[in-house]
Amino acid sequence: MPEKIKQQQAASYSLLIQGNRDYVKSVTDVDPDFFTNLAKGQHPEVLWIGCADSRVPANSLTGTRPGDVFVHRNIANMCIHSDMSMLSVLDYAVNILKVKHIIVAGHYGCGGVLAAMGNNQFGLIDNWLRHIKDVYRLYARELDQIKDEKQRGDRFVELNVIEQVHNLSTTSIIQNAWKERFDLHIHGWVIDISTGLIKDLNVSCSNTDNLGQVFALQ
Ligand code: CO
């Protein structure tokens, strides 16, 4: 590897360590016990299921701190019934941490969603994108009518979030929790990266009322 590239990589890596030292100092200057208290345990009230995109970090965008938000991220904030990683996070958040709010947070300009809107092959990830294409199939009539590609992509991002909220509400984890308590809500949000602002899609649900007979488990 050329020496110059090696030096650049070392610089970017050491910047992370330096950033950590600076961050810890800025926090402990204000609250010397912050990390000592943090080490005692976590009691977050929110589970965030977001996209892996580097531009949508849960804590920074919501002004929250370590300990406030339990987080799961994957490409295009998908909630797939057979994804053991997502289901394990969901189960732990709902049944052990007893979170009160689950937020599916999509974002405009999502590379995964936009890729699913086209027909290029990308390799292994195509199998993940298929789940997003399944959402397109559900809403093809509405989406095909939007001629402007950006507008179509934006709407697809919103519909994908709505569909993932639905997917969560059909899991036995969520439905069994709803039988025991009334303070568990699922929300759908979209982040506009160009402004940093969050848009609430107002699709929150906290019971099985609108799921239909097939999906509302006994
Ligand atoms: Co994304």
Folded structure, characterized:
The chain is α/β, with parallel strands linked by helices. The protein has two domains: 41 residues; 158 residues, Carbonic anhydrase (Beta-carbonic Anhydrase, Chain A). The protein is 49% helix and 14% strand. The chain has nine helices and five strands, in the order ααβαβαβαααααββ. A five-stranded mixed beta sheet has the order 2-1-3-4-5. The radius of gyration is 20 Å and the shape is globular. The model has no long low-confidence stretch (mean pLDDT 95). The site of cobalt (II) ion has 7 residues, from helix 5. Cobalt (II) ion binds next to helix 5.
What is the CA–CA distance across the termini? 60 Å
Give the SSE order as H and E letters: HHEHEHEHHHHHEE
| Rg result | 20 Å
Low-confidence blocks of residues: none
Overall morphology:
globular
Number of helices: 9
CATH fold call of the largest domain: Beta-carbonic Anhydrase, Chain A
For the record, the CATH class of the largest domain is: Alpha Beta
Q: Secondary-structure map with pairings?
A:
Layout: H1 3-30, H2 34-38, E1 46-51, H3 58-62, E2 69-74, H4 84-96, E3 101-107, H5 111-117, H6 126-138, H7 140-144, H8 149-169, H9 172-180, E4 185-192, E5 197-200
Parallel strand pairs: 1-2, 1-3, 3-4
Antiparallel strand pairs: 4-5
How do you describe this structure in short?
The protein has two domains: 1-41; 43-200, Carbonic anhydrase (Beta-carbonic Anhydrase, Chain A, 3-Layer(aba) Sandwich).
